[in-house]
Amino acid sequence: MLLLHEGVALFGGAATVPELRRRGLQSALLRERMRYALHHGCDLAMMVAEAGSNSQRNAERTGFRVAYTRTKWKLGS
Fold first, then answer.
1. How far apart are the C-alpha atoms of 13 and 49, rounded to whole Å?
2. For 16-61, how does the pLDDT look when each residue is reduced to its tens digit (9 = 90+)?
3. In the chain, N or C terminus with fewer CB closer than 10 Å?
4. Cβ(61)–Cβ(27) under 8 Å?
5. Where are the alpha helices (DSSP H) in the chain?
6. Quick check: 2 and 11 in contact, CB under 8 A?
7. Residue 3: pLDDT band with limits 50, 70, 90
8. Starting at the edge strand that comes first in sequence, how are the strands of the sheet with 8-11 ordered?
9. Prediction pTM value
10. Alpha-carbon gap, residue 66 to 47, rounded angstroms
Protein backbone atom coordinates (compact mmCIF):
# COMPACT_ATOMS: atom_id res chain seq x y z
CA MET A 1 0.00 0.00 0.00
CA LEU A 2 1.13 3.50 -0.74
CA LEU A 3 -0.89 6.55 0.29
CA LEU A 4 0.17 10.05 -0.73
CA HIS A 5 -1.37 13.06 1.04
CA GLU A 6 -0.14 16.65 1.17
CA GLY A 7 3.52 15.78 0.73
CA VAL A 8 3.49 12.76 3.03
CA ALA A 9 3.87 9.16 1.83
CA LEU A 10 2.56 6.33 4.00
CA PHE A 11 3.86 2.84 3.22
CA GLY A 12 2.19 -0.29 4.50
CA GLY A 13 1.05 -3.80 3.76
CA ALA A 14 4.12 -5.12 1.94
CA ALA A 15 4.63 -8.87 2.17
CA THR A 16 6.55 -11.52 0.28
CA VAL A 17 5.35 -15.09 -0.18
CA PRO A 18 7.59 -17.49 1.75
CA GLU A 19 9.15 -19.21 -1.27
CA LEU A 20 10.37 -15.85 -2.67
CA ARG A 21 11.78 -14.37 0.55
CA ARG A 22 15.42 -13.35 1.07
CA ARG A 23 15.82 -12.14 -2.53
CA GLY A 24 15.53 -8.40 -1.88
CA LEU A 25 12.00 -8.07 -3.24
CA GLN A 26 10.55 -6.15 -0.28
CA SER A 27 13.49 -3.76 -0.30
CA ALA A 28 13.17 -3.23 -4.05
CA LEU A 29 9.45 -2.52 -3.68
CA LEU A 30 10.11 -0.06 -0.87
CA ARG A 31 12.76 1.79 -2.91
CA GLU A 32 10.41 1.99 -5.91
CA ARG A 33 7.53 3.29 -3.78
CA MET A 34 9.89 5.89 -2.31
CA ARG A 35 10.96 6.96 -5.81
CA TYR A 36 7.31 7.24 -6.88
CA ALA A 37 6.40 9.30 -3.79
CA LEU A 38 9.33 11.68 -4.29
CA HIS A 39 8.39 12.11 -7.96
CA HIS A 40 4.86 13.04 -6.82
CA GLY A 41 6.02 15.74 -4.40
CA CYS A 42 6.37 13.91 -1.09
CA ASP A 43 9.18 15.02 1.19
CA LEU A 44 8.19 12.94 4.22
CA ALA A 45 7.66 9.17 4.37
CA MET A 46 6.24 7.04 7.17
CA MET A 47 5.72 3.34 7.72
CA VAL A 48 4.88 0.85 10.45
CA ALA A 49 6.78 -2.38 11.07
CA GLU A 50 6.94 -4.89 13.89
CA ALA A 51 9.89 -4.15 16.17
CA GLY A 52 12.88 -6.33 15.32
CA SER A 53 11.26 -7.73 12.17
CA ASN A 54 12.76 -8.17 8.72
CA SER A 55 10.47 -5.32 7.63
CA GLN A 56 12.07 -3.02 10.19
CA ARG A 57 15.55 -4.03 9.06
CA ASN A 58 14.63 -3.45 5.40
CA ALA A 59 13.21 -0.03 6.25
CA GLU A 60 16.34 0.96 8.17
CA ARG A 61 18.57 -0.19 5.30
CA THR A 62 16.53 2.09 3.03
CA GLY A 63 17.04 5.10 5.30
CA PHE A 64 14.08 5.00 7.69
CA ARG A 65 14.76 5.49 11.40
CA VAL A 66 12.59 4.47 14.35
CA ALA A 67 10.51 7.43 15.57
CA TYR A 68 8.83 5.56 18.42
CA THR A 69 7.78 2.08 19.48
CA ARG A 70 4.39 0.93 20.66
CA THR A 71 3.54 -2.11 22.73
CA LYS A 72 0.38 -4.03 21.97
CA TRP A 73 -1.20 -5.95 24.82
CA LYS A 74 -3.07 -9.21 24.44
CA LEU A 75 -5.08 -10.94 27.16
CA GLY A 76 -3.72 -14.46 27.50
CA SER A 77 -5.93 -17.48 27.94
1. 9
2. 899 998 898 888 889 999 999 999 999 999 998 888 888 899 889 9
3. C
4. yes
5. 25-39, 54-61
6. yes
7. very high
8. 2-5, 8-11, 44-47
9. 0.78
10. 10
